Amino acid sequence: MIDIHSHILPFMDDGAADVEAALAMAQDAHNDGISVVVATPHHANGVYMNPAQEIEAAVKALNAKLQEAGNPLQVLPGQEIRLYGDLLDDLERGQLLTLAGSRYILLEMPSSRVPRNMEETCHELIIQGFVPVIAHPERNAEIAADPSRLVKLIELGALGQLTAQSIAGVFGSKLQKLSLELCRRQAVHVIASDAHDHVNRPFGLSEAYGVVKRELGAEAFDFFLHNSRSIIANDEVFRANPAQSNNKLHRLFGFFSRKG
Ligand code: FE
After folding, report:
1. How many domains are there within the chain?
2. Which of 28, 88, 220, 228 can pair with 2 through a Cys bridge, CB separation 3.0 to 4.6 Å?
């Protein structure tokens, strides 16, 4: 499995506190069946600033440590970027990182609301050839109250990233139900851990995928696995989540005839 959102890099944010903690997280990822992790430290969220070059250096250092420790996990550079005023300018200046050097860029909103300039920023990014990936929309209060706020951003061309623990039910049944609803409404396209440590907020992808398979079916499971692979390969993702209730439509368009 591939994980596109994690706080595994040491000394960067509220994720791994030191190298030992990062290695413990890497062991957890490996045990969970994950082969590639994109490290996405918080950036410009009001607390942490982690510019591109520092992240790239830290990724290099962690990969060397992993090799030393005999853990085959591969860490790739990324960033979880809070929506902020200079985002587009800083991106142009090369201070921001996309996910593993792809056109996919991980965007974070405040948890309480959808910022007024969210649509405009997504639109501008898309015009420039990027694909905004909205981090854990299910944890945003405004979207939870009105999922059509998210659907609007998806219709613009953004993608939704669901957090593994949300769909696994770790954050409660209400958030799990909302997560499943967002899957069925075609509003989320990729599942990622948002892991911060190896105890309270671990990787847990296998558990989340187990829930997807059980609740939404094997096609939805394939859809999510495919999309996380496509993101780090900078390939096209699937937009139409087969978890939707109107499966007939998808059969007409041949989604279910796709092999592997
Ligand atoms: Fe995060």
Report:
1. 1
2. 228
CA of 8 to the centre of ligand 1 (A): 10
Closest CA to 133 of 141, 144, 124, 122: 122
Q: How far apart are CA 78 and CA 98, in angstroms?
A: 6
Of 114, 111, 106, 105, nearest to 149 (Cα)? Answer: 114
The pLDDT of residue 244: 55
Residue 246 lies inside a defined structural domain of this protein: yes
Give residue 126 CA to ligand 1 midpoint distance, Å: 22
**pLDDT 10s digits, 2-38:** 999 999 999 999 999 999 999 999 999 999 999 999 9
Cα 160 to middle of ligand 1, angstroms: 13
3-state secondary structure of 217: coil
For ligand 1, the distance from its centroid to the CA atom of residue 181, given in whole angstroms, is 22
109: domain CATH number is 3.20.20.140
- Expressed as residue numbers, the domain containing 221 is 2-253
pTM: 0.92
Question: For residue 112, is it within any domain?
Answer: yes
CA of 194 to the centre of ligand 1 (A): 5
Average pLDDT for residues 98-102, to the nearest whole number?
98
Question: Ligand 1 centroid to 42 CA: how many Å?
Answer: 7
Here the tokens at position 116 are 């007024």
